[in-house]
Model the fold of this input.
Amino acid sequence: MSQIKIDSSILSHSANKTVLITGSARGIGAATAALFNHHGANVVITDLAQFQDAAENLISSTFTNPQRAIFVSGNIVDWAQLTSCFKVAIERFGGIDIVVANAGIMESSPVLDVDLVDVNGELRENTEAGRVIDVNLKGTLNSMSHFHDLGPF
Done:
């Protein structure tokens, strides 16, 4: 695994700010959440419900300030669930200052496969492409729309 050296002064502005990070129970999102928390930010970890244990373990065993972090389950593709994530974050910490739209997925099969046919030889929809676009594009746009709606900055 590669490591990137980050100048601590870059994150000094995040002390006492609230950061909502999508897809942050594991991987890059989890490392980002831990870094913000270490620099004094309130951190809202949002991810699918199935990753709650990973998020809670991250908070309790890795975070410098675990009392300044919560997990809120939600799917960024589902508008109502994402709305709930933002509402819970605002209720708990009084607002959201930073959003990191980290959630994303890789394709599990070729998304540009245009030769998909059903048992009758008819062209069929590439559902994998739709899933990747939903999460990586629509989910990011949903996250940014909610944050923009909080304005003014």
